[in-house]
Amino acid sequence: xxxxxxxxxxxxxxxxxxxxxxxxxxxxxxxxxxxxxxGSFPFGAAVASVLIVSFGWNPWPAxxxxxxxxxxxxxxxxxxxxxxxILHILSGILVAISLYSINLRIMGGSNKPxxxxxTVFTSVQGWGVPAYxxxxxxxxxxxxxxxxxxxxxxxxxxxxxxxxxxxxPAMAAANGINVGRMKLxxxxxxxxxxxxxxxLFAQSFGSADAHMGIGVIIIGLASVIVGMSxxxxxxxTQATIAxxxxxxxxxxxxxxxxxxxxxxxxxxxxxxxxxxxxxxxLVSQSSRSGMGKLLKRRA
Length: 299
Known about the structure:
By secondary structure, the chain is an all-alpha fold. It has 11 helices and 2 strands.
């Protein structure tokens, strides 16, 4: 793997690290299987791209607008579940398929090219350093800032209430915590992070596409599962580090798999490789757990 390919893999891994943090909030903190991310990822990309290309916005406020749009998408899913008691999985599917049509409307077609447009990445170019080196550095700064902010939030009173609402909703409600409100805020945050990832992905690769959300939920979950299977997760700080580590490790595993010529894999096999990685991780985790119990019984 060349330096260019290595930095490119790090860049994609950092972007999907944001998706992993979103999956951590919805699946681990709130225990809410949220499928909205399949729509909020391209939603963020579409909003940022149209604002930059069609309306001439500065890329930074355009990216913030994408974050706000993603929050509304997650809020809508939680509202369907909390207000109308629609099953959480179905709520996410309904919002995701709605966003597909909304994205087509926003972009005026199935994609929106950003080639030649001013993006958050071009704003840091021109310092005598190659762009393929500066982009991962900028993404690393963004991801670290968001990771620290998320850690601090989950240790505040609202964050503690959110963790309690996900761990034991009945007990949380008995202690006066509004579980529904925690879902609204939590899913909004999770999809805001996913939309941010979509906006950055589109600006990094030069185009937003209505189909770019396919498989994002699997990538986010795979990152969380892989990271938490390898690193210790006794604290929130360790858990978010594990999510980011899992996203990077996942991208490198996919890159190495697809570059292994003897396996005969192609770029179109990335979803198959993703599914196999998740299966291998889960099976190995289950095997270690079973072996541990067996050793304890024999001891």
